[in-house]
């Protein structure tokens, strides 16, 4: 597992190279004076078979980053900088027609709400089989067989009979399993799961996470798991990138991030992890305040208004993402004891 910290010279060189790599990606809405930057200079990468967690509160830019990578930004949104490299090939600038074969077949997306992702007027079997028949050149009966195998693989009981069900006839957990079956049907290289369990009860959440994790290992896909809850990535991700106000503020191996978080925002997120009691998640110590609205960007470090360690420099200068430890654990924070170059850059003292 590897995440690139900007263009850090410390990044590990992999023999295979990342399957998907974002390099200095920027996303904005609007033009000219009305332009609002929602993602700034985001760099990260994931290798085949590995799992990367992208974590941050609502509005921190997780979804915009991934929609940009998939060429799915809504109207008004545009990539302002950077590259999206799929096995080294840049996807930025490709037309919708050129992106169509990439989505689904190379990079598949599972969203949080299976009900809106599935066609309510079509049986599960029909919507699963259509792409196999139209794009995969399969016969109707071969596609039916494959759909049954896939529903079986994702743990839907009575898979063959379920092909005739409409989405509303399945429970939330079963719908999410069907969506996962569709996502993996083309054997994608990268699976992006955007809050895949948010709409589900706690028990079903952990079952779905375990399913995604086991499929990732079995099929050798790279997994990008997007969530606002660090608790969700704990058992799944090899490495985590924490996003705040559209910027990566810390990345580390998951174990390291939990044992020794460096950014005050990461620490606050860890303090706010939900405790589960009687199947109900109770959020402990929510972080006071809200992330900034990108239409009114905050000066210096975007987290400073909510940060208990904030100093003058934090209000004035944007910290850079750097790895003062040499342990592949970069952080964007002026008050981190290992990070000093940003302080030196502005000549300030702590
Ligand atoms: N169509 C849009 N036009 C303008 N700004 C947008 C648009 N969509 C999203 N944004 C802004 O982009 C920022 C990042 O949003 P994004 O959806 O990526 O956050 P997120 O971290 O994925 O949050 P969530 O978990 O709620 O999806 C937010 O401030 C949001 O208001």
From TrEMBL:
Residues 20-270 form the ABC transporter domain. Keywords: ATP-binding, Cell membrane, Membrane, Nucleotide-binding, Transport. Pfam families: ABC_tran, oligo_HPY. SUPFAM superfamilies: P-loop containing nucleoside triphosphate hydrolases. It is found in: Cell inner membrane. It is a peripheral membrane protein. One of its GO terms (molecular function) is ATP binding. It comes from the Bacteria. Its main location: membrane. Belongs to the ABC transporter superfamily. This is ABC transporter ATP-binding protein. It comes from Microvirga puerhi.
């Amino acid at each position: 597992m590897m995440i690139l910290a900007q263009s850090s010279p410390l990044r590990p060189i992999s023999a295979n190279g990342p399957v998907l790599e974002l390099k200095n990606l920027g996303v904005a809405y609007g033009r000219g004076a009305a332009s609002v930057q929602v993602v700034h200079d985001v760099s990260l990468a994931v290798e085949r078979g590995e799992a990367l967690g992208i974590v941050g509160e609502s509005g921190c830019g997780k979804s915009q980053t991934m929609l940009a990578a998939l060429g799915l930004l809504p109207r008004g949104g545009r990539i302002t900088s950077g590259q999206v490299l799929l096995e080294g090939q840049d996807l930025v600038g490709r037309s919708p027609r050129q992106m169509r074969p990439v989505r689904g077949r190379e990079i598949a997306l599972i969203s949080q709400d299976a009900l809106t992702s599935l066609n309510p007027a079509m049986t599960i079997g029909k919507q699963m089989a259509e792409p196999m028949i139209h794009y995969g050149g399969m016969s109707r009966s071969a596609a039916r067989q494959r759909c049954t195998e896939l529903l079986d693989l994702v743990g839907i009981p009575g898979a063959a009979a379920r092909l005739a069900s409409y989405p509303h006839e399945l429970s939330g957990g079963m719908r999410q399993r069907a969506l996962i079956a569709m996502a993996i049907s083309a054997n994608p290289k990268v699976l992006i799961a955007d809050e895949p369990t948010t709409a589900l009860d706690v028990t079903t959440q952990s079952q779905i996470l375990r399913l995604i994790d086991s499929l990732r290992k079995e099929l050798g896909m790279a997994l990008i798991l997007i969530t606002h809850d660090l608790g969700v990535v704990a058992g799944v991700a090899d490495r985590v990138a924490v996003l705040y106000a559209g910027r990566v503020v810390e990345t580390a191996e998951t174990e390291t991030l939990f044992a020794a978080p460096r950014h005050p925002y990461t620490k606050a997120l860890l303090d706010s992890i939900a405790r589960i009691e009687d199947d109900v998640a109770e959020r402990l110590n929510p972080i006071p305040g809200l992330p900034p609205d990108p239409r009114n960007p905050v000066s210096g470090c975007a987290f400073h208004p909510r940060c208990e360690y904030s100093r003058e420099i934090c209000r004035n200068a944007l910290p850079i993402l750097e790895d003062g430890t040499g342990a592949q654990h970069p952080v964007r924070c002026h008050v981190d004891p290992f990070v000093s170059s940003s302080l030196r850059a502005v000549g300030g003292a702590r």
